[in-house]
Structure formats: C-alpha cells, structure tokens
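Please, is this right?
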Amino acid sequence: MAVILALDVGGKRTGMAVSDEEGIFAFPLQTVETSKLVVEIRNLMRERNLGEIVMGMPVNLKNEATDGTIKAKQVFAGLKKAFPALEISTIDERFTSRMAKDALLAGGMKKSDRRQKENTDKVSAALILQSYLEQKSRFGSGTQGKPNTNGI
C-alpha cells in the first residue's frame, strides 16, 4: 500500500507528515518553506511510495474562508498541476494548531522547543493526517465515504 502525505500549509512554512503503508498511523515528518514544497514532495516521492496527498484547508468556525484559505487554495492548485497523477484532497483543519501545541506540552517537550513554530507545523500536519485516516477507516474508500473536501 502507498504512503499518504499530509500538509499543513502556511504562508512561510508547511508542516509535513506521512502515514505508515497500512494507512493507520500518522507521523510528523518535517517543515519546509512553502515556496519549496513541490521540490520537497518530488524528493519524498523518490524515497517513498507516495500515493496520495491530503492538505488542511483553513476555515473559521462558521465554515467560511480565512486569510490562510487563499494561500491553501493556491498551493492546492499548484500541487494538482505539478502532480496530476496523485490524488490530492483537502480536509478541515480547524483547531489543529491548538491541538498540536497541547500535544507537544503533554508529550513533555521543553518550552523552548515548543516555541519553535516548525514543531507545531509538523505535528499539526500529523493531526490533519490522523483525522483523514480515521475518516477513511470509518467511511471506507468509496465515494460516499470521501472525507470532507470543503468544496475544493
């Protein structure tokens, strides 16, 4: 089975996480400059059997676009163009940054390490991916079970 890559896209940096080949667990991978994302994904494809990309789509509590939504949509379109053979989808990413910070705290990470935004970004990507994997597991891989793509 192929690995799924998750992205937590930001204006400057993008957190990356990958699944295991069985599609059960999500693991934080790295943080890259958003402008270098396509190059990093190409490198990752040389190392792993990448079969799908899922990225967080930022929306507010009313399910409306935020400042980050525009950037995420631009990155989404760029990824679709750069990787036409890969399935690329989006998932609601509300609260993942807050949950990532809480997870880092609960995991005992030192305060100085928690302040490094890169750590929060890659853990956020792992939370996005774990949510996606759970939805896939719950609903199956048919069209009825497709995770929410927020209209993209």
